[in-house]
Structures are given as C-alpha cells and as structure tokens.
C-alpha cells in the first residue's frame, strides 16, 4: 500500500487538494492506521498554530494608527509623500529596471526567428542603444543560467558520506532565487523559458531553506528532487541557447560595424 | 419616519456591514441597495478614497487596523514590529490605491501588503531575534494559562506555546507569511502566490515546509498530550 506523501498530507489537512485527490487521500486514511495517525498529527499542529495568541488591540487602535499616518500622507493618493521617506532600497530600482528590460526583450527577441543581419541595428560604427540593451539582457540571462548550473552541479556532486555542508550553495541559492523571480515575472510571454524558471524556483527555495548541514538521507532526497526534474540538463540547454544567441548577435553586430 | 442618512458616506444603521461607517441609530440608508452589502459599502468607500477623500481612507484605516495588526504580529512575532508593519501597510496602500483593481476584498488586499511589509522587515533583521518566545519580552506567552487548569496542565500549555514560538522563529519570512495567509487568514494558494510573487508550486512548498518544521518541533508534545 502506498502511503500518503508528507506534502500531500499537509495539502489535504489544509484543504488544498483537488476533489479527486482529496477523496483518494480520505479513503486511504480511512483504511491506513499510519496515515490516519500522521494526518491527526498534522491537524493537531495546525490547531495549535491557530490557537497561538495574538495581543489584542482595543477599538481605538485604528484611530491611533490614523493619528500617526495623517501628518505623513500626501494630499492625494499617489502623490509624493511628505515628512517621511519611502523605505526604497537601491536594489529595487535596479531590479525594476531589470524586469522592464528583460520583459521588453523577451516579448520581442527571445522567441523570434532571427533574420540574418537584423539582430544588431547599428548606426555607423556604433551599436544602436537597442542592440546594446539586448546584449546586456542576453548576457544577464546567460549569467543567471550559468550560475544556477554551477550551484546545482556543485550540490549534486557533493559527497554524501556523513553530513553534507551546503552552506555555500545556500548563499548562492538565495541570490539566485531573487533573480529567478524577477526573470520569471518578466518571462510570462515566453513559455519555454518561464517553465524552466518555474521548475527552478521550488528547488532553489528548498536549497536556501534547508539546514546548512544535511544528513545523508536529507541530501539524497534533495539530490533526487533535482535529478527527477532533469534540472541541470534543462538549465544547461537554456544557457547554451542563450549563449548561442549572444554569439550570433555579436557576429551580426560585428559584420555590420 | 424615514430620516435621510447623515453619515459622511451615506451609510446608515440599517447597513448590514455593521461597520464604523454607521453613525446615527434608526436612520435609513439613502444609498442604492447594491451598496447595502459589505462589498458594496467597501467599494464605495474605496472609490471615495481614490478620489482623494481622506476621510474615506481614514475609514479604511480605522476599520482594518486591528486585523492588519493580527496578520503582522503572526508573521513577525513581535508587537513593535507588527505596529511598524501596520503603518507601512497603510502608507503603501495609500500609494497603491489607484492600482488596486478590487478583484479581492479590501481586507484581503491589505493583508497581502502587510505580509510583504512583514517579510521585508524580517529579511532586514538578523534571524532568531523574534521575541515571541521570550517570556520576559513577549507577554503573549504569559497570557494563555487557564485559571481553571491545574499546575501540570498550565506547565504543559506553556511548554507547547514556547515550542510553537520557537518553531515559528525557525521558519523563513516567506514560510511564515505563506503559512499565515493560508492557514490563519484562509487565503487561497493563488491569492498567496500573487501576493508573494511566486508560483503556486513554490507557495505550496513554502507552506509544506512551514508545517513540516512545526510538526518536527511539536509532534512529541502533541503526541504526549493526546
């Protein structure tokens, strides 16, 4: 008898399974004492979490919040706020620019068949701003794929004897995760690339959030997750395609300049 | 006698929203019936706020602050942080009023903003500084023991809360937010994914990891108390 997987058990307890999967899980739990006990365990934990007390705020709390907000809100929504500065981080501006750049690029170039000589518009001996922009985007995406590949390869090639220290890979995974989300957001109109980025996200999350020293069993489970999705292969292929486009782009630009 | 509604937004005590918009008792609402619903009233106030009516925005602040505080506290585990998150949430909401498409309720929208503000705050802060589990600084830990319970039961309850607080502290900001929005705020996976800017599979995984970590921490106590 195949037991209910732990992830499915949690989804079942939270009512997140579709009707047929929920019916199957319920029928199995009815017949299987171990899964029934595990389900009860998960539900007990959820109940305890829900019962965690939260300090109460009295009925006047909203008025007090307003008293603090009122002096710092601009006259109309959307205007620049006076008095208090936004907690805007410098990286957000770079990230926003990157999303716009990648989105614009992917919308046009990534899926389009290349016309010989059309890839790099030039003016005299100088590359046009669009061409420079596209080079930057190709390079950024290619770099992201390369770094992701290196992280995954390092991880799957680790020696599982005893505990495995993945703290270095975790630092890389955290950085990659933020970039991956930005690229994923921008790649909505490019299904193939979006799919690879989609597949990457939960694995990067898992690497980032795992304990930094894994037991052999935990490590094998993580490695199996990476391998079952052929992630290294997909990332390698996508990276190679991006590099090929980058090379052809540069050659096109060189020919014309 | 029909008395025309004299509240600022045209809602009266007959309004089923039972909100703080309601002012004079025994007055009759002069608004069309489609506004006599929670959604209708809220959208009316929202439209007023978007048009620059500060009193309307004040109404939203006064109405939702306590619930936003609850979400913020559940994610940050710290009262002062939760207070900061509440203020930041309404500041952001004011800036984003024009972009809010009202496909979800105002409360849901505000809770999403609060979750993101809480995540930002937690990420700026070193791990394991949450005071939720610190008996001296977190009065919440002291609150629960029932006066009717015996000393052993009180001690067991305290240990359970302590362990739960520690388990929550071990969650990443994203895991806390995803878990809080799903289990405690009952938002859907799609809503949470949109709020946190990740795909549904990643959201499910964040929730799973949160529950798995808490289960590991709490199972021995849950079993012994069963």
Describe the protein in words.
The complex is a heterodimer of chains A (257) and B (226). Chain A is mainly alpha-helical. Chain A is 68% helix and 3% strand. Chain A has 10 helices and 4 strands. Chain A has helices at 6-13, 19-31, 33-50, 61-69, 90-110, 129-156, 167-186, 191-209, 216-228, 231-256, and strands at 122-123, 126-127, 164-165, 213-214. In chain A, strands 1-2 form a two-stranded antiparallel sheet. In chain A, strands 3-4 form a two-stranded antiparallel ribbon. In chain A, a hairpin with a 2-residue loop joins strand 1 and strand 2. The longest helix of chain A is centred in the middle third of the chain and has 28 residues, at 129-156. The relative contact order of chain A is 0.09. Mean pLDDT of chain A is 75; it is low at 80-94 and 109-126. With 226 residues, chain B is mainly α. Chain B is built from 9 helices and no strands. Chain B has helices at residues 38-50, 54-76, 79-96, 106-124, 139-143, 151-169, 173-184, 189-196, 200-225. The longest helix of chain B is centred in the last third of the chain and has 26 residues, at 200-225. The radius of gyration of chain B is 21 Å and the shape is elongated. The chains are: A mainly alpha (257), B mainly alpha (226). Chains A and B meet through helix 1, helix 3, helix 4, helix 7 and helix 8 of A and helix 2, helix 3, helix 5, helix 6 and helix 7 of B.
Reported for the largest beta sheet of chain B, the result is:
none
Shape of chain B: elongated
Radius of gyration from the alpha-carbon trace of chain A, in angstroms: 25 Å
Helix share, percent of chain A: 55-70%
From N to C, what is the helix and strand string of chain A?
HHHHHEEHEHHEHH
Number of helices of chain B: 9
Largest interface: A-B, 49 and 65 residues
Q: Biggest sheet of chain A, in brief?
A: 2 strands, antiparallel
Give a brief description:
Chain A has ten helices and four strands, in the order αααααββαβααβαα.
